[in-house]
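User: Hey, quick favor. My workstation is busy. Could you predict this chain's structure for me?
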Amino acid sequence: MNKKHTLKKTAALLLGFGIALSGAACGFITTDSDADMEQTVAKVNIAKYVENDDKLNAYASSLSSLIDSGLSTSIPKRDLISYFLSVGYTYVNSYGYTYKQTFEMLMEMLVSRKIVAQYALAYYLADKELGLTAEKCLAFMNAEVQALAEGSRERALLEAHPEVSLLKYFLVEGDTTGDKEKQKPYLQAVYAHKKAINSSIDSMEQSVIEAEEETHDHGEVRTTPTNAGTEKTDYLPADPVKNYKIYTGRNAATDCPDYEAVKGSTTTTRKKAYNNFLANLQANNLIQKGEDTSDFEKIDYYYVELAAQLEQALITKYTEDLNEASYANLTPEYVNRKYEEMLASQQDEYTKDYANFETAVGSISDTSFVLYSPQENFGMVYNILIPFSKTQEKSYNTAKNKGLSEEELFKYREELLKGVQAKDLRDSWFCEHEDENYAYKKDDKWYFFENNLTNTDKYESLKQYAGGYAYQGTVDEAKMEAKSGALGDINWFINEFNTYVGATGAPAQNYGKYYKQDDEDEVDYSGFVYYEGSVDVGTVSLDNYFVKGTKSYETVSKVNELMFAYSTDPGCLNTYLGYTVSPDKTSYVPEFEYAAQAAVKKGAGSYVVCATDYGWHLMYVSYVFPKGEVYGVNGDVNYWKDMAKEESEGTFANMFYEYLKSKISDDTSLAQNGIILEYNNDTCVKLYKDTYKDLLEIQA
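Assistant: No problem, here it is.
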């Protein structure tokens, strides 16, 4: 887990990501004219108030100079409406907010963003090592304008929006050499801006394509692994300024080499989508009347939104830099002390009340740790449920109502279980539409999530998902439709499991034997364990459980993949370690409880197959908690010395370190909230409520 995963969220959670473009609520808000849209709803200028800050007061005049040089202090009505279309509309439609509540909330967010952005400028001016000044910024801005052809549309737009080059100066820390690392924050903001626009047009184009095509039934939607198809937050194309373009259909797709068109896209469908996109913006007076819209990157609205994106990027950079400076305090001694404190607290809590331990294990993750176990034989299992068919289920329910004895009913179920068939459930992962398709062909077989598995520079990796088990059904390649019928009984599935996972095992000797225990009037549920097996996973430890390349990780990744392919139990999908299994009485049905507890006693890598009223269960033991300290730190400071290295990703040391970093990020968010509270006063902020009064009065 690199620092980007921890840091990127902070400013977004605080202020909301920059103003994105949306196709929602076309023509919903009406205004009288372009002039109305340009009216100011608020002004934010903290320069005067910075004079009261002991650390920054020497730079108040420089900040004031930057504001005079082109940093906008005004929030136009257009920004408020645009923000509503991209963010606020969801609050009204999905969360029951009134329009008045929503617009007041958005105003607070826009004002807060202005405050923190201006404060960030003062912060960077005060950093003497960077050497950023108002004078150098002005020279940088002038050079940016002069680099564009005189009389060109781009030059006129940059002159009309000087905040774009002003914010760029601080994002690149004044760099004029093209240093890739220093340019990265600016380039990421430009890429995010263009990508948001393309995504909006993509969505509209998809609707156009679907309207023109015959619709197909892709079966029941199947849950996908976490991060499937997800692009990394810090991904950046080779040249997002020149090569990543906004594709409108009025330009050629070949002129946008880093943009990936939706499947089925044509020049006609793209033009239709782009026209719909423009119509939505024009209906809400977000595009100036009579403006040439043939190139979206050369219209006024593009620069308005780019400035908003750069402003948010500056806040994100400021937040990350604050966090990075604070990480110096995360010494091995400090981390070890925090570990010891958490361990001592859990030892006391779990020893006093075992239920607290069970609850904690249920929410264990890479940010929620269980460091101590009060007893042995407490484990975690993945459950692959191969269910009765609807016909079999109906037949079994009918038998239950016939007054059969317990033994007769178990025998009836046993006969039904012989006919239970496994089915590959990944049909819906095939789709003719590219943005909904996860399948790819390799060596005449179909697999899934090629981007996540092979293009890891751009896409997030899939945790605990091997990706090597081919689809078992049939595929109509012309329509990209898949269908999987009955593949085989439980013996067929066990063979599939053993072959793919590398397990060995044998049928249980007592399967099918129904008998009461000698001294109690209870069923001995060992008779419902059909098969027992195991995989050699070596020594399994939470210290390195999630490190790729270990036997335990590779095995559980394959088990997890088979669970996504075959199991109809959704509760176990995308879980950290699976279901918790206590050695004491549980809430599971008795056959499941017995089998799971028996498997846990044999340790990680073991598995059992048992029968219940739901069908067949294959339970794989992912981890067993030893009694006492779960992680092997034992007060050793040396344990933490390599904790932050990239190659240690997946280790407990690295995860615990990242967890502490996130706590620092939370502290930074609180500090920024303090800045907002301090500067959101009558000296710094002026609201013009009459300007947006009409928005507050909109009725549902």
